[in-house]
Design brief:
single chain
């Protein structure tokens, strides 16, 4: 069991420090509801000033019926901390984390759903490469990519913990809830980075390992920092998301060519309508936390960039069959999907509101599975067609059907590559 002792001051959280009057021993309720620091501190000071003791003062100062619905968990406090000025001074409380809970915490630090999407796009790059890789390299690619993504996400959560505490969508993250220490989280991040890049280097190839390391540096070092200063962070983040397909392609063939670039471009353009529509509906959170996002600083630009990149997917998908990773029928199927995707982006551009943003975001969630499904069907059909033609051309009767020796002079075996021995029984002498 890991005992985490956390120092909390009234200026830190929107944690509302309330005592439960229904029990003889006071408990400290901590919730991560969206209450500003000033409001929390002011309410606490008023409660401590007007009350005879800490529990009664908190009860009188704050309406429990409105806040208890949002309480996330109870934390026991030492009796010494329940004095009159407990809410206006710093105090310690303990978080007990069992060893059996660590795997859940590590998955949360890794942002497991986002990491799973990253791994799937890397798998797609491996699968669509005409060069067939080995099963061992595929397994090493999957595990190494997962570890690299986990390292970047864990480092990101350490750096953004003070700002995540002010966002509704991030307030339940591990570092905001103080379930582990920053040192613990950074150790997990560093270990994952070393294991992931080493696995990619020794079990796959150096190019894939270099791409994995570049992804960690770009996400944790560049993108996370830029979010506080410039809207250009969205473009950097899209580059980060476009690298995993290149990792999968490089794992199969050891090189990057037009097919890899096409898959990277597909993920790159897709991320703008996906993220911009998401950030539009949570722009209040980004604004409160101080993040410099397009949806906060320029709503029109946010919608315009979404439309522009969604429209770019139409010619890109039509050109993908020319790279050799899918059948030409993919161009037709992709036009139907991309046209509807662009239509939703157009609605968001003409009328940016929660409804149009939600429609665009929801379709972006199913867009990649649909498109990769069409890519897989086209790839399988292309491989089947190529196999049939190869088998037909390798048939020993193929040339005989093209130029039957029975209608040619005896010397025709020099023109028709059919062995004289195989055709001698069918050749008839010309009448003298």
């Amino acid at each position: 069991m890991i005992v985490r002792r956390c120092l909390v001051t009234p200026r830190q959280i929107p944690y509302s420090c309330l005592y439960n009057s229904n029990t003889s021993k006071p408990k400290l309720y901590t919730n991560h509801h969206d209450i500003t620091y000033q409001e929390g501190a002011t309410s606490a000071k008023e409660g401590a000033t007007s009350a005879k003791d800490g529990a009664k003062g908190a009860e009188e100062a704050i309406n429990l019926s409105q806040i208890l619905r949002k309480i996330q968990r109870d934390v026991k406090v030492n009796p010494e901390d329940t004095k009159k000025n407990a809410l206006t001074s710093s105090y310690w409380f303990e978080r007990n984390v069992k060893a059996s809970e660590l795997h859940t915490i590590y998955l949360q630090l890794s942002k497991s759903r986002l990491t799973s999407l990253v791994v799937m796009t890397a798998m797609a790059g491996f699968a669509f490469n005409p060069v067939s890789g080995t099963l061992a390299s595929f397994a090493a690619l999957s595990a190494g990519t997962f570890l690299c993504s986990a390292a970047a996400n864990a480092c990101n959560q350490v750096m953004e913990a003070p700002f995540d505490a002010q966002m509704d969508r991030c307030k339940q993250r591990v570092m905001v809830r103080h379930l582990v220490s920053p040192l613990h989280c950074l150790t997990f991040s560093a270990t994952s980075a070393v294991l992931g890049t080493s696995m990619l280097y020794y079990c796959v190839n150096p190019l894939t390992a270099a791409l994995g390391l570049a992804n960690i540096v770009l996400y944790a070092g560049v993108y996370t920092t830029m979010k506080r200063y410039t809207i250009a962070n969205t473009w950097v983040g899209s580059i980060v998301g476009a690298i995993p397909p290149a990792m999968g392609w490089a794992a199969a063939s050891g090189t990057l060519d037009s097919g890899a670039l096409a898959l990277c471009a597909l993920i790159y353009f897709w991320q703008f309508p996906h993220f911009n529509s998401l950030s539009f509906n949570v722009r209040q959170d980004y604004c409160r936390a101080g993040y410099n996002m397009m949806s906060v600083t320029d709503v029109a630009l946010n919608a315009r960039v979404s439309l522009r990149n969604t429209a770019a997917l139409i010619p890109l998908c039509m050109a993908i069959p020319f790279t050799g990773i899918s059948h030409c029928s993919f161009s037709f199927y992709s036009v139907v999907v991309n046209t509807y995707f662009t239509y939703l982006a157009w609605n968001f551009y003409k009328s940016p509101n929660k409804q149009t943003a939600r429609e665009l975001f929801r379709f972006s969630l199913v867009y990649l599975p649909i498109l990769f499904g069409f890519l897989a069907i086209g790839y399988a059909f292309k491989e089947r067609t190529a196999t049939s033609e190869e088998k037909h051309h390798s048939d020993k009767h193929y040339m005989k059907d093209l130029c039957p020796s029975s209608v040619l002079p005896a010397s025709a075996d020099q023109l028709c590559p059919v062995s004289h021995k195989a055709s001698s029984g069918n050749v008839t002498s010309a009448p003298s």
